[in-house]
Amino acid sequence: MIYLHKQLHFFIANNFITNHMPQSLETLNSRFGLTNTLFFANHAAGLPVAEIQTPLARAHVALHGAHVLAWQPAGQQPVIWVSQAARYEPGQAVRGGVPVCWPWFGARDGLPAHGFVRTRLWHMRETSLDADGQVRLRLGISDDASTRALWNHAFDLELIVTVGQTLTMALVTRNTGTQAFTLTDALHTYFGVADIAQTTVRGLEGCTYLDKVQNFAECSQTGVVSFSAETDRVYVNTSAECVIDDRAGQRQIHVAKQGSTSTVVWNPWSEREKSIADMAAGEHRRMLCVETCNAGPDKITLAAQGIHTLTARISVA
Ligand code: TA6
């Protein structure tokens, strides 16, 4: 009996350490570093970042928020955009990269915007180099007293990032509790473009969208999406692949997805940009968010022990 009790105590303590204690740089490098391919370094404010460099691509992934900060396939300009004014601080969301919005997308009265996992430290669970030269990272976070104070559910969340000529991000939600829960989520991807005024997004023609700039008015998309003012739209009931046609940059970025029925398109334009403290003047010209989501009315309900995966697959032509 005493032996069993000790075993149980050991299991719980070990599990708690694996899921909740910060991992030191030394531990990260010794357990998860990959020779000549992946190492961990402390970026600003001591936040550990996985730096990946292979013949296929370069990428940075922070443990803070499981935030993909950079991805640049070989022979291309960087694809993911981060503001020069971004703040890398515990409790802050980074302006740019790929914020993980979960378990809700958007604002909620008195609660953090876009949920609480983008501002928390995640755990590195696994790294590997595949036979085809792609690097895979698996990061995780699970509930504790502080998450339950904001959202009273038991969960385990993983982000599996695959870095190669294509960037794949799979956000896996597991309901580890005994009650069903409902969530919305997003891989809120910021893309770099050479000139927003010459950029369009294809794939959403004919879709219904909720226009945040017009107090969530329901509208219908005619033709491709183009940009000449603040744009903040939740396209609903769409699983379509989108293509960002960056004419000035002479490239097309493909955003394919699975497990997602909404796409958000956002550019703050010049006026709104001024109210965003962590965006520098004029930066809206060089960025565009095309977000792989389940948002607005497109909610996910997960039964006890259920699993849902939201996947974005990004490539450049
Ligand atoms: O995804 C678009 C959006 O919800 C916009 O409404 C805009 O506020 C943006 O996200 C950024 O939100 P954040 O909380 O990161 O400032």
UniProtKB/TrEMBL annotation:
Keyword Isomerase: yes
Keyword Secreted: no
SUPFAM superfamilies for the chain: Galactose mutarotase-like
EC number of this enzyme: 5.1.3.15
Reaction catalysed by this enzyme: alpha-D-glucose 6-phosphate = beta-D-glucose 6-phosphate
Domain of life: Bacteria
CDD domains referenced in this protein's UniProt entry, alphabetically: D-hex-6-P-epi_like
Family: Belongs to the glucose-6-phosphate 1-epimerase family.
Name of this protein: glucose-6-phosphate 1-epimerase
